Task: structure prediction
Amino acid sequence: MIDYQTYCQIRQLYTEKKLGFRQIARELKVDLKTVRKWARRESFQKAPLPKRQSKLDSFKGEIVRLLERHDYSARQIFQQIKESGYGGRYTIVKDFVRRVRPKPKPAFLTLHFEPGECAQVDWGYAGAVPVGSTRRRLSFFLMVLAYSRKMYLEFTLAETLEHFLSCHQHAFEYFGGVVQQVWVDNCKVAVLSRTTDSIVFNPRYLDCSNHYGFQIRACGVKKPHEKGRVENGVGYVKKNFLHGLDLSDYKIINPAARSWLDTVANLRVHGQTQKVPQELFAQEKLKPIHPLAYESAIIDTIRVNSQFRIKVDGNSYSVPCHHASGKLTLKKFTDRLLIYDGLNLVAEHVRSYDRNQDYELPDHVQPLLLERKKARDQKLFLRFLGLSTRAEEYYRQLQQRRLNPKHHVQKIVALSELYGIEAVARAIEDAFTYQAFSCEYIANIVQQRLVPPKEPGALHLTRQQDLLELELPPPDLSIYD
Result:
């Protein structure tokens, strides 16, 4: 163990002078391993003091056995080990007894429920699962009927309010009815706040309870025993269904869970009732489900960015381009997203739980592309009119004679970039002379003017006598009369 001064020297040579470990070891005459150990440490730590031998060490096992046999006081134990040869003080014995004495477990009343009276719900954590190019937290919702212990299980990729309400709906559909009360803990999707005198429930959860006709009961803070049936159910799911399960594909987890419920969980002999939950379920007195399913969507006001996108769960979704930089209303379901402008539905997307993905519908960007195309066509036409004073008249002739005048305009403008504006303007003038109206005619005229005309050469006759054997008819002088 080195002292603080040596540590400071090692750090100075290592950080300021940039010496290597071997150089520092030779400089300070310190072992190389010691230099390696302390050079990278940013603070100096003294070596821990050796643990002192206590006079009570040899009696600790006997003290634990005495406490397991009977709830002796520290004074009684002190007297007994003193007779066995203990020579220390009473305070050491008292401190040790306080640490190792088994703490009494609180007593709880066993709650009894009538058929159809209560269901208990809770969330459970199941690790992470791959979704697309990312990984998401995997949670599961569990509802247990307090009388029969029949359970409903559903896995989700979030524990948000829309998932919480949707799972309630699916659970009631699975059971074929609704209980009188639903017991929950103090999660924010159910309880917003609570004091000793009052509980403020989430208004959407209250609305759901009024829709289906059940009462909400929130358990006490840090009192999981009040909903022990679902707490035990969460542990059972982890130890039985999830133990050794390959969580590589989220799409197959819920079908597998439903099969497990119907073939294992609800057909086992329950450890407390010693009866099969599915058999006891026949005695449950559930209320009929409301004929209309409760809309579990969460409604938010969102702002659209300049690229006419909204952000949900780390992904981008398109809306019609004319809503860019505006405000819209978003309805978030567990499986889809509905976007409204007032009462008008403007976009609908499948909700994705991947990350950093962009989802664009072709109809949303089409008007913007058309506007850009019109702007490009207008700019092109203005360039064409600037080629010649007769360009507008030439365009009218193209409209009358050609099926696609814009195509010819585009080609003629391209010719002006290739051969120059003056050459194309002159070609347009000549085209009126020849009544030639197309981009091909303009290109031909321009190219013909670029080719210099060939000068005529001397006439060569193969036979010289041809020049002397010419026969000319006599002239007709009558025209002068």
User: Anything to note?
Assistant: The chain has a mean pLDDT of 86.
